Amino acid sequence: MRPCTPASLFLAAMAALLPTAAPAHAEAPPPACATADEPDFPLTTRLHGGPDTYRAGGGFGTWYLELTNTTGRSCGGIHPVVVLYDDKRALRASQTVLEFYTADRELPHPVRLETTDEDELVGALADDDAGFEGFTVGAGRTLTVKVRLALTSDAVANEVVATAAIVQRHEGDGDWVGQSDEYRFRIETGSGTGPGTETRTEPGTAPGTAPEAEAEATGPRPTAPAAPTPPAPRGELAGTGDGTPVGALATAAATLLAGGMALLRAARRHR
To answer: Both ends of the chain: CA-CA distance in Å?
Structure first.
């Protein structure tokens, strides 16, 4: 399995998040969650509860993204950015349906996946059209986000790794405030049973989690469609011109890669 380095993970995360323009009704950006004098990420992040296997053309498999705020201050404007990379570099955004839930509504939010130059799929848990301005994790609290994934019938048999970079958005910029572990799964093809309905594994929420910290929607669970349809992608990240936020990011990305991890540390984006 090819690696996803910390630098490439951060660049993929920022490229996925920054094209989403800040909503016109947005309030002032939240205070910075990360500080220069703290060596570790302020949010610890864990992916858990997902199935080991997805069947192409099957239903959704459900997993959970757990965010724990290790600081004494609230962290708002938080957007996890999911990164999927596969052995064969064959998985396409058009074959992948990714959705997440928030506590304020029953229906899931769609995640728009983009393809990077490294054939990774990246998608921010962001939905400005619905007025979602990011998650807030209270000081010392844990928030669990329900995510679900399905693959269309033309996806090929493959080994896939999912991981997440956690970004705190500040209008047209962002801070890297967390990074998850890896969630590995297989895509299988042909007849047989896959996750034809949602996986019902419940999150192992840390003791003391407040009710408002649960991002899973309440009420009846939506029924997984037999043939999920992915949202229309905005196109490959590398194809965006210099006049867009992604184009502006390209220059910063080149500088970041040239500077390597030393620049990441200098910018307070490191473990």
So the answer is: 23
Structural domains in the chain, sorted by start: 6-229+239-266 (2.60.40.3880)
- Cβ contacts of 7 within 8 Å, gap of 6 or more: 256, 257, 260, 261, 264
Q: Are 65 and 199 in contact (CB under 8 A)?
A: no
pTM of the model as a whole? 0.70
Helices (H) and strands (E) in the chain, counts: 2, 13
Q: Are 185 and 138 in contact (CB under 8 A)?
A: no
Q: Which DSSP category does 201 fall into? A: P
Distance CA 219, CA 235 (A): 35
What are the tens digits of pLDDT across the range 158-188?
999 999 999 998 766 778 899 999 999 999 9
Of 37, 94, 100, nearest in space to 63 by CA: 100
Give the residue carrying structure tokens 């991981």: 163
Q: How far is CA 78 from the centre of its chain?
A: 10
Q: How far apart are CA 250 and CA 65, in angstroms?
A: 28
- The string of pLDDT tens digits covering residues 32-72 is 888 777 778 999 999 999 999 999 999 999 999 999 999 99
Is the distance from CB of 85 to CB of 119 less than 8 angstroms?
yes
In terms of C-beta density within 10 A (0-12 exposed, 13-18 middle, 19 or more buried), how is residue 10 classed? buried
125 touches 145 (CB < 8 A): yes
